[in-house]
Design goal:
Nitrilase/N-carbamoyl-D-aminoacid amidohydrolase; 6-stranded mixed beta sheet; 17 helices; elongated; 2 domains; alpha/beta
Length: about 575
């Protein structure tokens, strides 16, 4: 990547200078120095990406999310769009490879492939960050562009993949309450704005240090101090946001984690094994109730894939579930894979309400199957090249309605596994009448890799965003009960059989985030893209005005509307 200072330097000898051969040693030294600076910048971008990973579970060093945003903002400041794009890619690839390292269970090629696909969204964002850094209020446009990047990545391709959002690294921080106002996008915006303001402060301090001491004014440090204070103030706004937690009433629940035979791709083991594990744990709960060691709950929650056979078609599976339901005497929400009733070759991932009196009743079918995990896009073409896809023998068919289910006396909102990462699915479920949320999940494939912790963090954010208690029911862990304020009140260990019991608060009120929906995300993303478009229009006008001597497209402009562009190049290593 060429440096801005190098691309603006004339290579032809000046009038009166010696022949080019006489100047070659100096030119070589300058090019070597420029290459060293560029390598330092690239390494700094990669390290910043790794630092962002450490902000997420299982590390949970959330202040590093601010540091990472600030570092990338400094590195791209005052550069060309092309240079910013490269830095965005160099930042994002190590970030996603380390964040998604749990995919190594499937294969490191899957980890790298998905990471590169996700990192591609940081290429235009990096270009936009570089170009908008020439505008006044550029920290604001930086934050908007982070929202725009997540907006796109959460939707395409194949419905998007929202892992790695800044909001999901801030599920127990001063920024978290903002989710009740504008959802995850507002949390991302606030985190990115604070990071960009810290970058602004660092750039102003660097500019001050370059001024000779004799020429510095006593007040020259104040802009940097103001920017740092604003960064802190943005985070502190979360403390002013009320998080609704008062319960209209409560329901007694039991969460059964039956466990699996082994972790990894072959967690299912022999048929009926996982189902029997959940039946046995429920029968033990029933024994404890009969012996007076435990109180009878109002309902029992089983996880995704708790029945590894279709209970509608397999009599043995249906009889096992019925035995557990009759023993405990209350409805059980069962997770099961069932054959599609009309489309041959398709399977549905369902949550089924199984009542002790009426048997199987209402159900919810997962709306967002995971591409390449639960269905294979372009199956015929890709299966001929990637034989591993044969491990997904049948495509999952998506459901067409929200997961609001009456489970005994409680109106629960069922969300299955990765669906907790998608704003719209969870929000629609709450707006449809869910008084509490249950995330049925099967994390056995990714046990002890950090993925269950990352998914639990999403449940914490959803609790605050919607003012609802969230129950995570997992086959092998981590099962958890999260209060409406995002506090994890109980959780299990991974790969253990366990039962959690609690009085779960039920709420009817909706948060501001529920009411405004995706509007804040669209507005913030559009503002960032509009700022980027403004810079492009100005650049083209400048280029037309300068003809016939058109400037090099890679050279940084001297548009100093933001006041920091010429100084930023030195800070960034150029």
């Amino acid at each position: 990547m060429p440096s801005g200072s190098e691309t603006t330097r004339a290579d032809a000898p000046a009038d009166g200078a010696g022949p080019p051969a006489a100047r070659r040693p100096g030119r070589v030294r300058r090019r070597a120095a420029s290459a060293r600076r560029n390598w330092r910048v690239l390494v700094a971008a990669a390290v910043a990406g790794l630092a962002l990973t450490a902000a997420f579970p299982p590390y949970d060093i959330w202040p590093l999310s601010l540091v990472a945003v600030a570092a990338l903002s400094v590195l791209v400041h005052g550069r060309t769009g092309r240079q910013g794009a490269w830095l965005g890619l160099v930042f994002a690839v190590p970030f996603f490879v380390s964040l998604l390292s749990w995919l190594r269970v499937i294969g490191w090629d899957a980890t790298v492939g998905l990471s590169v696909a996700e990192a591609a969204f940081f290429v235009p964002m990096g270009a936009g960050l570089a170009l908008t850094s020439r505008l006044r209020l550029w920290p604001l446009w930086t934050a908007c562009l982070w929202v725009a990047q997540e907006w796109a990545r959460d939707r395409v391709p194949f419905g998007g993949f929202p892992w790695g959002r800044l909001a999901f690294a801030n599920t127990g921080t001063p920024f978290t309450p903002l989710a009740a106002l504008g959802g995850a996008p507002l949390v991302t915006f606030a985190v990115a704005l604070s990071g960009a303001l810290l970058a602004w402060a660092a750039l102003r301090l660097a500019a001050r240090r370059r001024v000779p001491a004799a020429e510095r004014t006593p007040r020259s440090w104040r802009p940097a101090a103001l920017a740092a204070a604003l960064a802190v103030g943005v985070g502190a706004t979360g403390y002013a946001v009320p998080v609704p937690t008062d319960a209209a009433d409560t329901v007694s629940i039991a969460v059964v984690q039956g466990n699996v035979q082994q972790a990894g791709m072959d967690f299912l083991g022999r048929p009926m094994m996982i189902l029997n594990n959940h039946v046995e744990a429920t029968l033990q709960l029933a024994d404890d109730i009969d012996a007076g060691r435990a109180e009878r709950p109002d309902l029992v929650l089983w996880p995704e894939n708790s029945s590894d056979l279709d209970p509608y078609r397999d009599a043995e599976a249906a009889a096992a579930i019925e035995r557990a339901v009759q023993a405990v005497g209350v409805p059980i929400l069962v997770g099961a894979l069932v054959d599609h009733p009309t489309k041959d070759g398709y399977v549905e991932n369902q949550g089924i309400v199984w009542d002790p009196e009426t048997g199987p009743g209402a159900s919810y079918t997962k709306q967002h199957p995971v591409p390449f995990g639960e269905y294979v896009p372009f199956r015929e073409q890709l299966s001929a090249v990637i034989t591993r896809l044969e491990r997904v023998p049948r495509d999952f068919y998506p459901g067409d309605h929200t997961g609001v289910l009456d489970v005994g006396p409680a109106r629960m909102g069922d969300v299955i596994c990765f669906e907790v990462a998608y704003d719209g699915i969870v929000r629609d479920t709450v707006n449809a009448g869910a008084r509490a949320l249950v995330v049925q999940t099967n994390n056995a494939t990714y046990g002890r890799t950090g993925q269950p912790e990352q998914q639990l963090a999403m449940s914490r954010l959803r609790a605050v965003e919607h003012g609802r208690a969230v129950v995570t029911a997992a086959t092998s862990g981590i099962s958890a009960i999260v209060a409406p304020d995002g506090t994890v009140e109980q959780q299990t260990e991974e790969f253990t059989q366990d039962v959690l019991t609690a009085d779960l608060p039920l709420r009817d009120g909706r948060t501001v985030a529920d009411r405004v929906g995706a509007v804040p995300e669209w507005v913030l993303a559009a503002a960032g893209l509009a700022a980027w478009a403004l810079v492009l229009v100005r650049t083209r006008r400048t280029a037309r005005a300068a003809r016939p001597a058109a400037p090099d497209d890679d050279a940084p402009r001297d548009d100093t509307r933001g006041g920091d562009a010429p100084r930023a190049a030195g800070v960034a290593g150029e």
